[in-house]
Amino acid sequence: MKEKYRQKTDFRSYWHFIRMTLPVYCLYLFLTACTDDKNECKIQQPQRTILFYIAGDNNLTYEVPGKIEQLMATPIPAGCSVLVFQDTRESNPQLIEIVRGSNGKNTTTIARNYEECNTADTTVFRTVLREIESLYPSRSYGLVFFSHASGWMPEQTYSQPGLRSIGMDGQSEMELSGFADAIPEEMFDFIIFEACHMAGIEVAWELKDKTDYIIASSAEIVSPGFAPIYPKALSYLSERETDLKKFMELVANDYRIRQGDYGSFTLSLINTDQLEKIADAIKECMCPLYPDESIQRFDRNGKDLFFDFYDSFSHSMAAEQLNKLQQAIGQCVIYKLSSDHFMPSYGGFEITSHSGLTTYIPQEKYPKLNESYKRLKWYKEVSENRKIYDNRKELSICNSRKPTDRTTVTEKDT
């Protein structure tokens, strides 16, 4: 009897020991599972992490403090992490997280301080993205990219402001192919370019396997850009309430209350999953593009580099082909907004046709650009064996269309 009691008592003691130590052991496992180098556990993985990549080590450095100030005043949506990679002329690059404090005010946590480096370098951009995936695992990611840009164009093509590849650090620039190569496949739900001339078909095609949606401008981004609407608009970028059209409307409404040339804007929301339909429609075109004077341009001072995509092909496609192209663009560019004029006091232009995409048209005055264009994935997809983007003057074999035959696509059509 005593022996049975002793066994029973021993069993109770053993069970009591397990009950007391198991929670401690589980807590230990949880704490040692932290992934960041500061041993700060993230109890719940965020539904979305939004990275603001601010490459401001250039003549836009004066805009950076204002953007950070607006983000600090922005309510952080539930389930959302907000990261800022910033670089300026005055300081080394830094990765910070903006978090909501217990008092309701935002505070910053430094995730990493970097040595002086070239933030327009593909390797640096790739490294930052890998570190974010490692330090801040998330169900989804979004990117807001701020710097100088010139769409698909090669590094240091031009010295004028606003024509500087993608990102600029001092005199260094990142080209489109390098930018795309640095991004892991399907990493982003969206990429928002707070940078000039990024609504090109060439840019969208290069990024079609990297992001689901792109918000970009056919023309330049007029200062101070999107920063004033950050506090109201960030909630529309969270996973729970993602509404990229609402984000665009807030940006557009802010521009509309600005005075004069500062109210100039173009915005496009591009669904990259629908780009193949545009490529299929273009492959039916048998005539090379020609930079007709009546085609809508989206650059100032007669540079002739960014032509409206639909308007360009309206001069060289038959009616049936053009109708197919228009339908494909409508499925791909799911929303577009613009002002009626763009910086008219500074060599600007009237906006009469805005399909939401631009394209380059090869020209005799740009022989180096013409050769560079042939390296793009878009050119290789639609033109390499069809000569659509060849620099030709002879259009007698084509079904030339008069400017009055084209369909004008404006904000009112959206």
Give an account of the 3D structure.
This protein starts with a helix and ends in a 32-residue tail after the last helix. Helix 3 runs parallel beside helix 4 and helix 8 packs antiparallel against helix 10. The relative contact order is 0.10. The protein has a 9-stranded mixed beta sheet. The protein has a two-stranded antiparallel ribbon with strand order 6-7. A two-stranded antiparallel sheet has the order 11-15. Helix content is 30%, strand content 19%. It is of the alpha/beta class and 414 residues long. The N terminus and C terminus are likely disordered. The protein is globular, with a radius of gyration of 26 Å.
How do the strands and helices of this protein lay out in sequence?
Layout: H1 2-32, E1 48-56, H2 64-72, E2 80-88, E3 94-100, E4 106-113, H3 122-135, E5 141-146, E6 166-169, E7 172-174, H4 176-182, E8 188-194, H5 201-206, E9 211-216, H6 230-233, H7 244-256, E10 266-271, H8 275-282, E11 307-308, H9 309-313, H10 319-332, E12 333-338, E13 341-342, E14 349-350, E15 358-359, H11 367-373, H12 377-382
Parallel strand pairs: 1-2, 1-5, 5-8, 8-9
Antiparallel strand pairs: 2-3, 3-4, 6-7, 9-10, 10-12, 11-15, 13-14
Helix pairs in contact: 3-4, 8-10
Tell me the strand percentage band. 15-25%
User: How many beta-strand segments?
Assistant: 15
The major pleated sheet works out as:
9 strands, mixed
Tell me the radius of gyration: 26 Å
The neighbouring-strand order within the major sheet is 4-3-2-1-5-8-9-10-12
Distance between the termini: 88 Å
Which structural class fits the helix and strand makeup? alpha/beta
Low-pLDDT parts are: 1-43, 159-164, 399-414
Number of discrete helical segments: 12
Provide the succession of SSEs: HEHEEEHEEEHEHEHHEHEHHEEEEHH
